[in-house]
């Protein structure tokens, strides 16, 4: 047998071993595993956020009461957001709207688009509004824009409308309502994501 024939047989044998061992398929398998893991994380996150909104909705109609955080009895806006996150997901943070807004240790800023404030929002994001307690200059996204006076939770899109779950905001109780055409839409200046 010539050296050329032995070399060809060796190459064919090596190719067969590689094919049977799955070495060539490893990247495809890895990509599939990564997609599955990503899908699983998204599914878990979606379930968490759904649980968050459902927990908040159990308090619909409960009265706004300054400085109070008591399920079935009363909340102010930031005590409500703090209670919802703690009760639904075990995430604990300050019950002060100013601390929720200005503390870098609570969530990560979500940039509000100037043409469509809702564009970058996801369910569960904390929404901050300028009001008499913290009017700022009303500029979107800036650290000096105000928006530490009132806070609510973005509750997603229902029938083409963007909903908020909040306590107070001129309503004197916990509400779940569309933002379009309301004070909420006009006064929104800042947002934070708690669940990444």
TrEMBL record:
Presence of the UniProt keyword Hydrolase in the record: yes
* Signal peptide as annotated in the record: 1-26
Q: Does the keyword Hydrolase apply?
A: yes
Question: Which keywords appear in this protein's UniProt record, sorted alphabetically?
Answer: Hydrolase, Protease, Signal, Thiol protease
Query: What are the protein's GO molecular function terms?
Result: cysteine-type peptidase activity
Superkingdom, taxonomy of origin: Bacteria
What range(s) does the NlpC/P60 domain occupy? 46-195
**GO-annotated biological processes:** proteolysis
* PROSITE patterns linked: NLPC_P60
Q: Which family does it belong to?
A: Belongs to the peptidase C40 family.
Q: What PANTHER family does the database record attribute to this sequence? A: MUREIN DD-ENDOPEPTIDASE MEPH-RELATED (PTHR47053)
Full protein name? NlpC/P60 family protein
Q: Which organism is it from?
A: Paenibacillus catalpae
